[in-house]
Amino acid sequence: MIRFSSSEDIRSWGGVLQARHNVARPQWRDELPEVLAVARHSGSPILATGLRRSYGDTGLNPDGAILDMTALDRAIFFDPDSGILRAEAGVSFDMLLKMLIRRGFFLPVTPGTRFVTLGGAIANDVHGKNHHSAGTLGRWVRRIGLLRSDGLEIELTPQENTGLFGATIGGLGLTGVITWAEIETVRIASAIMDVENIPFENLDEFFQIARQSDGEYEYTVAWVDCLAKGKDLGRGLFTRGNHASKGARLPTKADPKLTIPFNFPSLVLNKLSLGAFNSLYYWKGKRNAGGSKVPIHPFFYPLDSIGHWYRMYGRRGMYQYQSAVPPESERDATKAMLELISAAGEGSFLAVLKTFGDKSSLGMLSFPRPGTTLALDFPNRGSSTLRLMGRLDAIVREAGGRLYPAKDGRMPADMFRAGYPHWQDFAKYIDPAFESHFWRRVGQ
Amino acid sequence: MRLIILGATSAIAEATARLYAAEGADILLVGRQTERLSATAADLKMRGAHSAEIAILDLAQTPGGVDEIFRNLVRQLGGADHVLIAYGILGEQADAERDLSIAEEIVRINFNSAAAWCLAAATFLEEQGRGSLIVLGSVAGDRGRRANFVYGAAKAGLAALVEGISHRFADRGPRAVIVKPGPTITPMTEQFDRKGLLWASASQVAAVVRRAADRGGPVVYAPWFWRYIMLIIRAMPARVFNRMNI
Ligand SMILES: Cc1cc2nc3c(=O)[nH]c(=O)nc-3n(C[C@H](O)[C@H](O)[C@H](O)COP(=O)(O)OP(=O)(O)OC[C@H]3O[C@@H](n4cnc5c(N)ncnc54)[C@H](O)[C@@H]3O)c2cc1C
Questions:
Q1: Structure pTM?
Q2: Residue A3 near chain B (CB below 8 Å)
Q3: Residues of chain B found within 8 Å of residue A78, distances taken between Cβ atoms
Q4: What is the value of ipTM here, to two decimals?
């Protein structure tokens, strides 16, 4: 029999919030109805979680029940003719890549880390560097097994049960437990990427390169120097790539090489060191600009080669702030945000800029929308950090944009509601026994 | 490489099977639960197993004919290089002390039935002149503790049996190994408070099992440091041991 055991140290990926949870780790799908019944009986609100790579509180349910889905990690079938894959929800992208790449296939959409689960990735309707060409993961989902707290498992498809399907894609785990899912995968000819790096001097150049690249390159993303000021504001490095048509079929070994052993003292990350890092990174990138062949893992998952990198941000953790703003305001809003951040000197190593395409998702709460997204880390310095993010909120709102719940740990409820006009429609599909810290904060 | 796993739905067994799958092995999964075994088999094939088949059998309910059934399993797989015996139950010590039929059940499953399969596998491996028998024991068998000595006694018996088989094998080709895991994070230990540093994951133990199939002594601890911890615990005078709450 599966039991819940109390755990004090369930934390968000950003590390700002840590709380007590009752955790169960089922190993077989046939155990799930009973586990749900036990949790329901105890009156605890329920939430399923994956590898907990969400930065904020969407995957937390303090004092409630958590179903850790990571032991439900089996592939169910794969059809090499159609590329259709069905697997249990707790399987990691890392594992799926091991299965797919050597068969000449790849995930249709992948976030910047491969340590996420299939269920967790669907619940956040994740996007990748190919959003302009592929849309979100949800567009590639053909079928989902969803177990509700009444013990009934329902099969959802984009054609049947459409409301619940749209609520479950990007549904932040609130519509029930995703037990398995079936997705389309894509064919690749090799495990090598043809990549080009292009430095840009300012935002106008960024938008120009992005526009020109989106038609020809499947993957595009840019790093931006968020501490540069004045005429350097908005400088950065643009990366674009395609799967190479020739080259090795097997990925190179890609286990973490370096691990951050402990939380860095907060003084390591200060204005000076961050500024120095960003400048160095920019100049190094500028020197090494041009085309190259890059193995799949370092191209898609550069951070995965550093274990526990969040510890760089110290004991108090960090916030991530990811916005999406529409095309009409993308230039001004992005500029205004960068100005604010560089003036505050609060930015991070990892400021990422990308244009989203117009391929929409069925997900009622899906984050991506046409326009531009900017993602930044902020070491948690308490009220000054919160104030800065509050001022960024004002810019995003004014621009008609929204924030990404998977990365959020603090947006005010009215900001969420303004950004996600379908939230009330979504709320109708929530399983009555399910809840998360995030939803308590913004949805009720 | 061909591997038979008796008790294939245990977390350690499944983790071990994945290591063999990645090497392209042929695997036969034996246990009671058809659906779980089929799910595991499908997954192992995706992970690289050359073949993964299942055989439905209640391993603890085969009083006679174990020898014959074992040979049928080998035939189903088309031969066997390694045999892993991985099933067992923990049981409730308190219940076992109150109700002897529960104690009997714990001993019957963990010792009697496992011993029968060990002996059947040993005969087969000896005739074949190569291959290995790997059996999951427990550090609980190294010294009886009030918390779980019925289970511990069964595992102690199993360890002696496997050591004996290993002795019998000496210079005849095959190997027999008892792997003794310390506390491992599996459904079996769900009810325990897992605070403290010495919990291992099923996949850590699986790596030890995998290695033990190829090399190492007849007794292997998983992880390795349990050898030294148990050395100390066994050497402790009863006077001291009895005062400890471990
Ligand atoms: C380094 C890094 C880079 C990232 N890059 C990107 C990126 O490029 N694009 C992007 O979109 N995201 C990105 N993310 C965010 C990450 O992709 C998402 O947070 C993802 O959903 C995490 O998956 P997980 O398995 O860790 O889920 P968790 O964080 O454990 O859970 C996420 C949500 O899914 C729900 N959930 C989990 N499993 C189930 C289930 N079986 N059934 C129902 N609900 C479930 C949870 O309740 C929660 O609401 C990044 C994160 C990191 C750490």
A1: 0.94
A2: yes
A3: 46
A4: 0.89
